[in-house]
Amino acid sequence: MNWLLVVAGAVVGAPLRYLTDRALQARHDSVFPWGTFVVNVTGCLVLGLLTGAVAAGAAGAHLQLLLGTGLCGALTTYSTFSYETLRLAETGARVHAAANVAASVVAGLGAAFAGVALAQAVWT
Fold first, then answer.
1. pLDDT digits over 13-28, tens only?
2. Among residues 32, 63, 79, 97, which one has the fewest Cβ atoms lying within 10 Å of its Cβ?
3. Interatomic CA distance for residues 88 and 54, integer angstroms
4. What are phi and psi of 57, to 5 degrees?
5. Is residue 33 helix, strand or coil?
6. Residue 121 near residue 55 (C-beta atoms within 8 A)
7. Which residues contact 1 (CB under 8 A, 6 or more apart)?
C-alpha cells in the first residue's frame, strides 16, 4: 500500500517538474536554469509545510509518503541542478553557475524554514 502512495505522488510530481521547467525556460531568455530553481525551491517549501504539519500532528505517515517522497521526490532534482551548474561553468557562465548554487541553497533553506513556520502558525 505504501508504495502506491509514492507512485501516486510521483505521477503528479514528474510531469509537473517537466511542464514547469519548459514553461519557465520559454519565458526567460537567460542561461540561468529558472525551471529547476523554481521546482527545487517549491519542493523545499512543500517539505517544510509537511514537516511542520507532521510535528503539529496535522499530517501522518501516509501524507508524508504521498507528498514528501512521491510528489517532492519526483518534482525536485539535485542531479539536474548539479548538471546545469556544471554546464554553466563549462560554457563560461561562471557567475550564473555561482549564483545558481548560492541562490538555490539560500532560497531552498529559506523556503523549508518558511514552510515549517507557516505550518506551525496554522496548526498550533
1. 999 999 999 999 999 9
2. 79
3. 38
4. 80, 10
5. coil
6. no
7. none
